[in-house]
Automatic annotation (TrEMBL):
Cross-referenced InterPro entries: LHD_YVC1, TRP_calcium_channel, YVC1_C
Entry keyword set: Membrane, Transmembrane, Transmembrane helix
YVC1 N-terminal linker helical domain span: 3-175
Transmembrane segments: 202-221, 256-279, 299-315, 327-350, 389-414, 452-469, 476-495
Disordered as annotated region, ranges: 581-611, 641-668, 689-739
Name of protein: Calcium channel YVC1
Highest rank taxon of the organism: Eukaryota
Residue stretches of biased makeup (Low complexity): 582-592
Domain Calcium channel YVC1-like C-terminal transmembrane: residue ranges: 208-501
Compositionally biased tracts (Basic residues): 689-700
Amino acid sequence: MHFIDTPLSYEALTAPDLTYTLIHPLLEKYCNLQRAHSNLSIVFCLLLNRVHFIRDDNISTAAVSHSRAILCEILAIRTLRDYGSSMMDLTVILTTSWPIYSGAPHDVLVHGRREFADFDDEERVGNAIEMAIMGTAKRFIKSSSCQRVIDGIYSGRYVYQAESSHSILSDTYKRTPIHMYDPHKAPLLDHYRLKVPAIRSVLEYSNFLILFVLFIIAMETNELQRINFWEGFFMIYALGFTLEKIAAMQEHGIKVYFNGTWNGFDMVFVGTYGVYAFLRMYGVYHDRPWARAMGVDSMAAIACLMFPRLAFVTLKNNLMVLSLRAMLLQFAALMMIAAFCFCGFLYGLWTLSRNSAGYSISQIGWWMLDLWFGLDASGFDNASQFDPIFGPVLMITYACLSNTLLLTVLVSILSNTFATINEDAAAEAMFRKAVSTIEGVKADSLFSYQPPINLIALCVMLPSSYILSPRWFHKVNVFMIRITSFPILLMISLYERQAKKNGTTNIYETLSVVTERVLETLPRKFKLLNFLEGLAGSDGDIDMVFEIEDELAMESALATDDGPSNMDAIKHHDRRLSPYSTATRPRQQTQAPPQPSSSSPPHPPPAPRTRLNSLMQRGAEAAHPFTSPLAQLFQPLIVDDGGIPEDAEVPPAQQPTTLSPSGPVAPPSGVSYGPAYRRRLSSMHHVRDHSHMSSGHHIRQNSEAPRMLFPTGGGDDPFSASPDQHTESIPPAGDIEEKGNVEWMRRLEKMEAAQARIEALLEKIAREVRK
């Protein structure tokens, strides 16, 4: 409030001048307060102040308050970034519900106790993520630090227990602190996993799918005179679904709950279901035919909510679904305003008709709706019967306003809404995911029971909470959850152990890896995927090129010593996390082969993994698996043999040593470390001086030294090791230049051959695409 006294946009606040004169001083102040006093509530306080400023609806101060809210969001993003290296600190900062009066002056507390009867010194209003949702801080939620925490909580890697004072079944006897989850250390039937957002989303989708199927069956088999089995089963299951939604709204509040994508449909369903259930039971047990028929009609109206709700849940990350929610809200608001305004025309025409025509108000309203939607012109035909002068004037004015002006305004508003969401669809999707994550972490034990079992839990456990002690209530509650959800908990435990073992991140990847492993164990003649592999085209071959390279490099790194350079190579080759990369697939554990002696011949490169042997053996006419023409496609396209001969020796002082418990050990005599770190220097030095020379020279290759297909992370590579690992000086460029030009010509020949292979591969891909 001190620094912002004029309206400023986000772009203006993040401009270089204000960044260095305003943002950085405030950021340094809050970061010092955060570090010096270990005060992890700074981010929460900034987001809480954003909620306060964003709620300013005074026309004269709203623009300035909006600028202050933007400044709070910017400071919250950059303050949170200060703890970006510690995931546990980030999780604590964003998920802890801080007491809002902690640190307040004494006179403020005294005034609060004196003026407000329900004043509580330890009052909590939520955590930082909830404040970001209430303040629509989409930039904060989109930040990388916040997304890491949200993804970790959503997938269940980081576990925390939500706090709520509005729970129906409150079980707070044994609260666990925020921690990382390890499925191998957790119990087999861990009932806390039922509150993981990712698992809850699957359970909620399954519950609604069951409700949808029961609704269709009940509609097709209902009997007007009585409630049959399927309709009764639907009513009980829908009652459990309704109880779950009411508990969710009570725990998080209406503000957070209605930020969900489809929660509005759920609340309309709850209201419509209540009307249907009341009319059906009243009409059947009191023999009221009109109530029975009205109940069936109300049940049919529920179909208008069930089908869109199922589509919204299935396509929850679709841009159109994200936009449709905001567009529906604006459309409903505009229609309500228009209907209220046009009631003046309805009342005026009805008053005129009482004098002569005598039309009912419902008939006039129907004619006006026809004009509104452009369906019928009966209102124009009968306009003169209302009044010869005012009747046509009112009807034409209404038609112009409703069918022309209102339609134009509506299209403009909805187009602007869609364009706004489309500009940053990723932020909108992340915001919705944050809402679903916070909704998924439930504090109420009622959510651990699936519909309709939650009805039994409510009838049994709610009275028990007033009779049993907190310790015994916790024991009985855990026992009930594990008994009623035994198959679900067992499936969750097996799935999470498989995901941990295979390094996968979602259900699709886990099922893909498990299915692939099962298929690999089958004989080739029993596999049914040959036809599907043919339909896939050359996409799989392209992925195999890089996959074989990664696996061979990994095996080469494991075959050598276990120094730091090998670990760097492993981390380097694990960086791709696509569904086709080796990071999402189980690797076969291989042991490092014994070091060859100086007299033994060099070993050939390790073969690719078993799944690809059938493809690689199609061209295995030669002894070496990479000598066939088809197998050459799976070699690296450019192999840099360097401008230094392979037989160049390295001085003994520069040869690396390996540390062992007994002391330093010299490297094996068959391993050469010299060319590994001089190749790149040679290519960098000669690319300027010898680029004009023509190819055509033939250089004798060293037949005794094994050819390096992939870099294995040599110990003296200055470009693969960190700067603090270099103990020797890099050789000067003059020493490399003495090697002559013949080596450079050899490099040019290999680059031209590699370019030819690239062009051949691209032509093959183009032919496959055209097919």
